[in-house]
Write a structure and sequence with these properties.
The chain has about 375 residues and is an all-alpha fold. It has two domains: about 180 residues, Cytochrome Bc1 Complex, Chain D, domain 2 (Orthogonal Bundle); about 140 residues, Orthogonal Bundle (Cytochrome Bc1 Complex, Chain D, domain 2). Helices cover about 30% and strands about 0% of the residues. It contains 13 helices and two strands; from the N terminus they run H-H-H-H-H-H-H-H-H-E-H-E-H-H-H. It has a two-stranded antiparallel ribbon. Helix 1 packs antiparallel against helix 6 and helix 1 crosses helix 7. The radius of gyration is 21 Å and the shape is globular. The relative contact order is 0.16. The N terminus is likely disordered.
């Protein structure tokens, strides 16, 4: 079902002091830089559509393997303590299990770490949609002083100081200078393989297996889809052939109100300056949602039950509250069944996406 990408050989020296660092980073490459080698197919699992692939970054075995290595490499942060996986780890559904993430030098973010699983299907990245692609998303956290506190030039310097690492870039992109554009493209190609479907829901809904979900989960699905009950599918969409469980839009739920009843984070508004976007945040996919607590953009809801109860109450009233948010009348049984249904959205985790340095990965 999923592509199998061979692990990179990690029998190389990771200590930066083993070869002299260059005096300055190499120049930024042409935006026309493109991977070399044979393009591989990323096969979507049951319940998901084909993975969107940009023309200038087709996935290859070499770029995916390189991106996997970079994703788990702490050298992308200033003190080498934080990698992409620190905040987006497979053990936490590709989040980090915290309300907000810890960064370098005691820094703390202000938003919950977005889930990377199935992020390939988002039209825009980050809670506020400020990145138009996975490639652009891979640029932000590295240079954020609160998150990884590094510079793109500094990352390049560390890579080209390690000859075997540099050789892997040549293998993936052809001979030439290492640039952060290549780093971002490799990470993005790896992240496009972090997709999960074939859940009990998918087997029930799209695979014809009417025993794949429990009776309680099936009743929860009906609550989820019914506009007069849960009304959840309005934003967490379910299609005839596949389900992304996101409308790829931004909504104000009233999450994050301060003691004065004001929005503490303006969300999408900071990017668009459109007054209607005040307090609006991207609809996250609900796939594998049971693995990625806590929830909401500020991590304020610790359990799925808390999330359901929040919606039952109609969110938090504010001037820009989304028109679809309204008080719901659900019994305790219906609430419990709604949670049971969301737990049935936990899909199959593809191989070859964990840390290539671990014994688990080496044993495969």
């Amino acid at each position: 079902m999923f592509i199998r990408v061979p692990s990179l050989s990690l029998g190389l020296v990771l200590l930066l002091g083993c070869s002299p660092a260059p005096k300055e980073a190499e120049k930024t490459a042409s935006p026309l830089v493109k991977p070399i080698g044979t393009t591989v197919e990323i096969k979507a699992p049951l319940g998901l559509p084909p993975v969107p692939i940009p023309e200038d970054n087709p996935p290859t075995a070499e770029t995916i393997a390189l991106g996997r290595k970079l994703y788990y490499d702490g050298r992308l942060s200033i003190d080498q303590s934080i990698s992409c996986a620190t905040c987006h780890h497979p053990d936490h559904g590709f989040s980090d299990g915290k309300s907000v993430s810890d960064g370098v030098k005691g820094g703390r973010g202000k938003r919950n770490a977005p889930v990377v699983m199935n992020a390939a299907y988002y039209a825009l990245q980050f809670w506020d949609g400020r990145a138009p692609s996975l490639e652009k998303q891979a640029e932000g956290p590295v240079a954020n002083p609160i998150e990884m506190g590094m510079t793109h030039e500094g990352v390049v310097e560390r890579i080209i100081a390690d000859a075997p690492y540099k050789a892997e870039f040549d293998k993936a992109f052809g001979p030439g200078p290492v640039t952060y554009e290549k780093v971002a493209k490799a990470i993005a190609s790896f992240e496009r393989t972090i997709i999960s479907g074939n859940s009990p829901f998918d087997r029930y809904q799209y695979g014809g297996d009417k025993k794949a979900m429990s009776a309680a989960a099936i009743r929860g699905l009906e609550v989820f889809r019914n506009p007069a009950k849960g009304n959840c599918a309005t934003c967490h969409t379910i299609g005839e052939k596949y389900a992304l469980f996101t409308d790829n839009k931004f909504h104000n739920l009233g999450v994050g109100m301060n003691a004065k009843g004001e929005l503490s984070d303006l969300g999408r508004f900071d990017q668009t300056k459109n007054d209607a976007d005040r307090g609006a945040f991207k609809t996250p996919s609900l796939r594998n949602v049971a693995l990625s607590a806590p929830y909401m953009h500020d991590g304020s809801h610790k359990t799925l039950k808390e999330v359901v109860d929040f919606y039952i109450g109609g969110g938090n009233s504010n001037e820009h509250l989304d028109k679809e948010i309204k008080t719901l009348k659900l019994s305790k049984q219906q609430r419990d069944e709604l949670v049971t249904f969301m737990e049935a959205l936990t899909g199959v985790i593809p191989p070859g996406i964990d840390d290539p340095n671990t014994k688990k990965a080496e044993a495969r």
